[in-house]
Each structure stands twice: as structure tokens, then as C-alpha cells.
Predict the 3D structure of the following.
Amino acid sequence: MSRLTFDLDVLRTLVTGIELGSFAKAADRLGRSTSAVSAQLKKLEEQVGTPVLRKAGRGMVLTPTGEVLIGYARRLLELNDEAAHAVRGTELHGEVRLGLQEDFGEGLLAHVLAGFARAHPRVRVEARLARNAELLQQLQRGRLDLTLAWRLDGRRSPHARSVARVPLCWLGARGAELPPPSKSEPLPLAMLEAPCLMRDAAIAALNRARIPWRVAFTSPSLAGIWAAVGAGLGVTVRTAIGVPPSLQVLAGLPGLPHAGLDVHRADAQPPPPVSRLEHLLAEHVQALV
């Protein structure tokens, strides 16, 4: 049996189409015609020997084989891109001061920043984990070059662009039953200290639904909130990104808005190391959502 060797361009088309939710959009992004994209996908299925996509309504979704393949495809493309940037990017040098929300600290620090450091060993990266208000304040004061920050109110800094819209959700301890809130037993909340965009969204949703609530636990850090919710001290509101396995998304509580996620730059035309890291951050976040 001959060895199967995948075409990375074809895998990139598959991954892009799934992430954008449309292979027509993938064709535009990749600079190909829709007929060329169709030909690529047909070639891929002929290589694999079984369908990797199936029709669902007016679009296409992955088959079980496709779900297996796309995980490997992302890893192959990631390694390919890292190698390409490593051999092309050795000239990059300088410093990037990066600010991150705690939601993204573990994944981005271990994944994106590690790969960036390998590809660009002459660039020094300083990372800071903090809350939204502090990150934007440090950016405005010139102490950060780049940051990821949540947005609920439509406001953003002068040099920002949207990278994702993520639904907020109610979170509680896994396996715990949530008793119906009442005047005698209001819903216990575990929340970050004010000001907090997601705290405000939770309280506004409960007030609109006329559900009694009380703040049972506050913390200046997200790690403290995860611990309190996992211990059953209350429920909280966050996105599903970075949620520990001890927690679960809760149903039956009022609907919540989406949170925008923006990448902010200190300068309109940042130096090449900042631009490169900004691109990698945006790619990673878009893959998460």
C-alpha cells in the first residue's frame, strides 16, 4: 500500500472553510475560486477514501472521519507555519510587551508564546496577566505594546480590531443542582471585584428577569472565582474559554449578551515583532471560538 501524503494547501482549505463556516468565504480568504476549492476537497476525499464533509442545510459539516482529520490538519499546519516563520523570521528582533486576560493566560502562554519564542529567538516577550481595565490603562500609558481585552459596551481604543464575538454563559460546579432562587434564598453569585463587565452583565440579566440574587463571594482574580464556584459557593458568568473541568455551563438562567474580544495596539503602525505576535494571537483566539 502506498503511503498517503497530504497536501498542506488542501488541508488549509479544509480548516479555513470549517473555521469560517463557509467554503465560499474560505475561497475569498485564500484567493481561490469556489470551483478550485471544490476540486481540492474532492481530491482530499479521494485520498482519504471516504467522505470528510456532508451537507447540513445549505452548508457543509464534518463527518466523523472529517472530525478526526481536522485535528491532525490543524497540527500539521501549525507546525508548517512555525517552521516557515522560523526560517524566515530570524531577522526579527526587539521586544513585545503583551497584556492578557486570565482567561487566555494558560493556553496562550503555553501555546502561542512558546511557538513565537522558538520561531523568533531574538525577540524578547514580556507578558502580563491582568484584568480588562488595568490592561487598557497600561496600554494607554505606553507600558504595553499589545493586549487582548473584552468589550461589551462598544467602546474600544484607537488602534484596536475585533477578533471574535463570544457568548457569555452561566457557570456552576459540575454535578451540583441549582435550587430555584427565591426572596429567602437569592441566587448566590461568585464575581470579580467591580468594575467588571461580566459582573455587570450578570446582574443586569437577573434584574431584568426579576430573579433575587446576592454576591456571595468576590475575588480580584479569576483563579479565586474558579475555586469558589467549584466549591459550590455560587455561580458566575464568563465565556466558555479557559473554564476548568470542575465547572459546567448552566441552563435555565436568563440569557446573556455576547462579549467582543479585541486586540489593541499601542501604535497604529507597530514594529514587525508586535505585528507578527498580533497575527498569531488573533489566529489562536479565532480557532478557540
User: Anything to note?
Assistant: DSSP finds ten helices and twelve strands in the chain.
